[in-house]
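User: For a benchmark we're assembling, each entry needs the component sequences followed by a predicted structure for the full assembly. Here are entry 17's components. Please fill in the structure.
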Amino acid sequence: MEIQSEGKMQVAIIPARLDMVTSKEAEAALAQAMEGDGGTILCDFSACDYISSSGLRVLLATAKEMKRRGGRLVLCGFKPYVHDVFDSAGFLPLFERFDSKEEAMTALSD
Amino acid sequence: MSMYTEAYAKKLMTPPKAVERIADGGTVVYGFGVAEPPALLTAIADRARADGFTSLKVYTYLPQKHARETVLSPDLSDCIQAYSWFVGPQDRSLVKVGLNYFVPNYFHQVPRFCSDFMEIDTTVTTVSPMDRAGYFSFGTSNDFTSTAARHCKRLIVEVNENMPRVFGDSLVHISEVDAVVENHVPLVEVPTPAPKAGADEIGKSVAELIPDGATIQLGIGALPDTIARYLTNHKDLGIHSELFVEGMVELIERGVVTGRLKNLHPRKHVFSVAQGTKRLYDFLNDNPSMESYPSSYAVDPDIIARNDNMIAVNAILEIDLLGQCNAEYLAGAQYSGTGGQLDYVRGAFKSKGGKSIHVFYSTAKGDEITRVVPRFSEGTIVTSPRMDTHIVATEYGVINLKGKSTRERALDIISIAHPKYRDDLLRQAEDMHLI
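Assistant: Structure for entry 17:
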């Protein structure tokens, strides 16, 4: 999974499928991105069509670890299916979320 | 102070202190339904939120609100892995997205899962207050809870004065308990949902199939409860049921249910789980006619069959033209569970003069969807195989499938579908080489 540095922010490009196969790689990439204290990781879901429970768990664990370190994990760019999965899982209230990457970048750079 | 009250006092502690003993990485079983222990489940969730668990397995069966608000809370799904023996409204969406894992079972087998196939670290459940001999009662929840309580490393009980004291094989002694907490809150109430149009037709026709002197089992839902309302002129009925429900209280109070003619446990009303309103819980309390047993006994088909004229009534979601019944799978996902349905279907048919009756509404969503289908959609779970299906009732009639050919079965099944779907079903039956 690709991680790009944009200013002070790390942007994780979530793959088309965040599932049991890809979530381990995503977990490792996110762990690397959050080395050190604080900071913000923005997970860009605009290319993601499918997320499984493995992907959900990786995001939850990463968000908790970020919070412990005084940082934040932010999500953006949900397609309808991904939104439905987050909704069914009761995960929507657990994450800071924006409709698009642009909207997130604007809000987070304030 | 007796030796039992002394032991009680020594084991009494706060919920956070009690759950400190649960091993990280361990397996927890908690009491079914009304016996969910809110203070202990809250303490487990609080410990998980304070990073007190890196992993915990929690087993659930038709969870209620206390579980949903604590151990099934989405924010804990990275450290608490929930397993579901029976899915309900509180965990349906979690099972669908794969956060909770469904465990297929017959209800009568679940106690053996607990004793032989799981290493349970801790069992937590709500019990009634201790009596003078040092016994608590499992109250509304005997099922697998009583077995899990005796096949775990530690048993923590949450004493609630509102939990009824129930007879039968429903007691646990203070000497078997590792920790006690007290929490005297009102029990969860599970009112029966309102019946839909057509329920009265089904209730009347099914009641006519039940002879005086029969022993009955009624499943969960509005339809079985409606049937109970049409039994008020019957005589000497008995109860041997996985579930004790609101409609049964009235039948006992009116003298319709006496249990006088039962072969097994005469004059006793046998169940494994109870759920309803405060009226039902008050009725159960210290009532010597009520006996609860583990599901390994009360839901065992061989035990069920020991009462003559055993009548099992269970609701299903849909039937296909082969006579297979689906009671647990909807829209591509696990909707509920097998529960004790197939156990009672088989036990009732094995009983001398017994009958198994499946009931359902012929349509859903304002007649937009037929519940009589040619074939189940791909992946659908069969709760009752076609060889087990006996009597089936909808608002359009009652049919018997036993001893019938595949042609006769298909035609009979189509005869109880909604009329607007019958021609299409006949054509599809022809395409399937059934008629």
